[in-house]
UniProtKB/TrEMBL annotation:
It comes from Terasakiella brassicae. CTP binds at D98, K108, P126, D127, I128, L129, F146, K160, K164. Keywords: Decarboxylase, Flavoprotein, FMN, Ligase, Lyase, Magnesium, Metal-binding, Multifunctional enzyme. One of its GO terms (biological process) is coenzyme A biosynthetic process. Its cofactor is FMN; Mg(2+). This is Coenzyme A biosynthesis bifunctional protein CoaBC. It catalyses: N-[(R)-4-phosphopantothenoyl]-L-cysteine + H(+) = (R)-4'-phosphopantetheine + CO2; (R)-4'-phosphopantothenate + L-cysteine + CTP = N-[(R)-4-phosphopantothenoyl]-L-cysteine + CMP + diphosphate + H(+). Residues 7-217 form the DNA/pantothenate metabolism flavoprotein C-terminal domain. GO terms for molecular function: FMN binding; metal ion binding; phosphopantothenate--cysteine ligase activity; phosphopantothenoylcysteine decarboxylase activity. The chain holds residues 180 to 401 of 401 of the full protein. GO terms for cellular component: phosphopantothenoylcysteine decarboxylase complex. Residues 11-222 are annotated as: Phosphopantothenate--cysteine ligase.
Amino acid sequence: FKTGPLFGKKAIVTSGPTHEPIDPVRYIANRSSGKQGHAIAAELAKLGCEVTLVSGPTRLEAPNGVKLVEIESARDMLVACQNALPADIAVCAAAVADWRVDNEAGQKLKKDGSGQIPELKLTENPDILATLSQAGDQRPKLVVGFAAETQNIREYASAKRIRKQCDWIVANDVSPSTGTFGGNENKVHVIARNQCEDWPTLSKKEVAKRLAAKIADYLKED
Ligand code: C5P
């Protein structure tokens, strides 16, 4: 793909869930499949982009032509993203755990028969999208985040864009009527500073294709 419109550009894409350790054998996670993030990495690579895909544990194969960095926790994901800088583009599609266990045990927690039940204390994880968006002279030229909303989609997503200081938010309508959750289709709104595009219901692959094309179009003057 050495001739595509994104040849010479570098992208970081985050995908999948994160696993937050409780002890050496247990973790807290979520049900993210990584389908949308992996598809975006694949489509950017097809346009000639040099892509680092930073992904939590998924059942997916590494897309062709993409450098896959496999991580487990949000903190690992942040370090891997920072190691992949500088980049022209960042697309944060991972479902990063909001919290991790603060009192992670160094040894396996034991059920010792005393009836004592361990208490997990949670602490906030770093926000990778916000960190990349506010990375000063290391900030990628285009930073794209995702937002899953069930109501007031445009308003909430737009507020999120401003709070995190990214350039675009791809807002998923995950209200039960759309069947997005766990499915292969997605209905999204792409929200920029003074523009909102409402895309029709599309496969996650088609969303990735259109997003990659939109990114190439945005950077073509570069
Ligand atoms: O705040 P919320 O989780 O709804 O924001 C979603 C967006 O922020 C997604 O793009 C997600 O990848 C990113 N995010 C992140 N690091 C976090 C939490 C969310 O990069 N700790």
